[in-house]
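Example A, followed by Example B.
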Amino acid sequence: MNIFDYSVPKIGEDFTTLFENKKIKIVRIVSSKTIENKQYIQDEDEFVIVLEGGAKLTIDNEIKYLNKGEYLFIPAKTPHEVLKTISGTLWLAVYFVN
């Protein structure tokens, strides 16, 4: 499998689990220009990096911008929301199961 072998959804985001075991889950996320406004509060710690494109997020009520190559660590139980993305934004998310 090639992480860059994907198509951009017309609306929303596509989530593909690349690897998962008892301690870790690695997910490829592909975002369209039009995404659902949804707040996430996850039980797992999350490390996320933008491989292509860019996004505007809120993390614990603070605005963050991520561009290609930039990454964030989001601790478990931290409210966050993707507000806007460039069409075709490609993310790699790593979730650490507690």
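Example B, a separate protein, is given below in the same form.
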Amino acid sequence: MPGYLLQQGATVLCMHGGQAQPVTTNMRVKVSGQPIVTQQDMYTISGCPFMSGSNPMPCVTGQWTSAATRVKAGGLPVLLQDSQAACTPNGTGFNILVTQIRVKGQ
């Protein structure tokens, strides 16, 4: 099922509400004037309030585990609105709240 491509300015949060931002490596392909994000790109997370008991255990980074199967940029699969990720150190995922709505991929 096609989904919208993620771009650098998409609103992505960890499952606990921390703000996730991509460290984008592909600056050649843009959508809505912003670089797209590929599966290889790491996300950094700030403001995650997660606690394990009384110990802080905030999400710090996130790596994507699924991406488009048919669309690539620079030979790398692009991220879609339904792509999945795992955050370190606790293994939870991302919530993709807002993305561009012009380009879809599969």
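On Example B: The chain has one domain: 3-100.
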